[in-house]
Amino acid sequence: MAVPKLRFKEFGSEYITTTFEKLEGFSIQSGKSDSKEDSGEFPFYGSTGVIGYKDSYDYCDEAILIARVGANAGSLYQVKGKYSVSDNTLMLCTSDKTNLNYLRELLIKFNLNQLVFGTGQPLVTGGMIKKVSIAIPSLGEQTKIASFLSAVDEKISQLTQKHELLSQYKQGMMQKLFSQQIRFKADDGSEFGEWEVIQANQIFENYSNKNHDGTLTILAATQDKGVVPRDEIDIDIKSSDASVLSYKIIEKGNFVISLRSFQGGIEYSNYHGICSPAYTILKSIKPIASGFYKNYLKTNDFIQRLSATVIGIRDGKQISYQAFSTLMIDYPSVEEQTKIAYFLSAIDQKIEVVAQQIEQAKQWKKGLLQQMFI
């Protein structure tokens, strides 16, 4: 008897093996809309979501939209109401004899990416999806499963919103702290002194130490995680033994100017290792609280000033130490730096806890999909 590993106890009937095209009322077709505006009453959907609006609509049925072509081919989401759809997106509909929410989860579990073909312009077709073999239970069981998984999605959505709000709160507090709209007081209740404003080369030196045997962990700078081991990012880079010997040492507490610092600021390293000589390593030569500059060097105001020093065009853009060294940088007392660093670190810890909860919930749902579907 074909049944899933995990099942609600009130259901016991066997699943039916069929294909999408044999479902009652099943249809799959490309959208037919090609013109859109920036405003209008009705949404205009593309392969990844709303891409515009129209004053009229072409469809009013609940449907699953599937990216048909391009880098997102195979990705999907569900819509309802009155809307239009671009011709690079497939619309999957069925009758009320099948729960569309259930089919969405079934498609997620199946993973349409495995059907995608082509390299220059990846593609998935409606004809391919029609022929996919599926096993489905009764409508009642479909509805129960879909409702349960929707509750899981809602929990993930709530956690994601909490994560976004905490991130926004941190950004707002950074703005107020680094513009000195908010000031901390010393432990004895007294006011801290005025912030110095000094050139960057009075705080950081250009650190280039290649005295190593090539066995240290290779590190890479990322805009979202700072400096991390290179094998933790989704980039496959091969380095010869000879080239690794030319790499620079990064010490814990150093900062890194990368080729993308003009977009995301300067990254902090919590690791000891080596990195490509294309990076500029900054080492403090004046007492600092690292956590203060870890955040200061990622503020929008600093990034804007840093980006003004960029030389080169397109992929050849870079920021030299010489250009960075002339920037004027705030330098509060180390005691005040430390208080600000601790405050922002406490927010980071809360953000990280929620991020872990989101990942755990996603993994839980992934496990449910594997066990609740055949």
TrEMBL record:
<dbReference type="InterPro" id="IPR052021">
    <property type="entry name" value="Type-I_RS_S_subunit"/>
</dbReference>
<dbReference type="Pfam" id="PF01420">
    <property type="entry name" value="Methylase_S"/>
</dbReference>
<protein>
    <submittedName>
        <fullName>Type I restriction modification DNA specificity domain protein</fullName>
    </submittedName>
</protein>
<comment type="similarity">
    <text>Belongs to the type-I restriction system S methylase family.</text>
</comment>
<dbReference type="InterPro" id="IPR044946">
    <property type="entry name" value="Restrct_endonuc_typeI_TRD_sf"/>
</dbReference>
<feature type="domain" description="Type I restriction modification DNA specificity">
    <location>
        <begin position="29"/>
        <end position="162"/>
    </location>
</feature>
<keyword id="KW-0238">DNA-binding</keyword>
<keyword id="KW-0680">Restriction system</keyword>
<feature type="domain" description="Type I restriction modification DNA specificity">
    <location>
        <begin position="195"/>
        <end position="362"/>
    </location>
</feature>
<dbReference type="GO" id="GO:0009307">
    <property type="term" value="P:DNA restriction-modification system"/>
</dbReference>
<dbReference type="InterPro" id="IPR000055">
    <property type="entry name" value="Restrct_endonuc_typeI_TRD"/>
</dbReference>
<dbReference type="GO" id="GO:0003677">
    <property type="term" value="F:DNA binding"/>
</dbReference>
